[in-house]
Amino acid sequence: MKSNPTRRRFLQLSIGGLVGMTLGGKELIKPALAEELPKLAEDDPQAAALKYVHQTPDEAKHCANCALIQGNDGDEWRPCALFPGKVVNANGWCSAYAPKPS
């Protein structure tokens, strides 16, 4: 049976990457802190498409009580699953708002 060099190379690189991540320490897989991420601008194309605003028009519906928000309760700016690499205002809102389950 003839081996496939592309497949063999893929396996070598995959195993090498896993070993490197394991031996490289936690700094390689350290998550970004919210303070280090840029704030989402209302005129960002993705934000505009979802009608994101920094201040909600409905006080009962805001990012802080949305199921998609991440980070620590009480922080003014927090990561959101919809906007990777950026943080949203906890008082903000977008059309993808989904209330947290009670």
TrEMBL record:
GO terms for biological process: aerobic electron transport chain. Pfam families: HIPIP (PF01355). It comes from the Bacteria. Keywords: 4Fe-4S, Electron transport, Iron, Iron-sulfur, Metal-binding, Transport. Residues 34-102 form the High potential iron-sulfur proteins family profile domain. The keyword Zinc does not apply. GO terms for molecular function: 4 iron, 4 sulfur cluster binding; electron transfer activity; metal ion binding. Homodimer. Belongs to the high-potential iron-sulfur protein (HiPIP) family. Specific class of high-redox-potential 4Fe-4S ferredoxins. Functions in anaerobic electron transport in most purple and in some other photosynthetic bacteria and in at least one genus (Paracoccus) of halophilic, denitrifying bacteria. This is High-potential iron-sulfur protein.
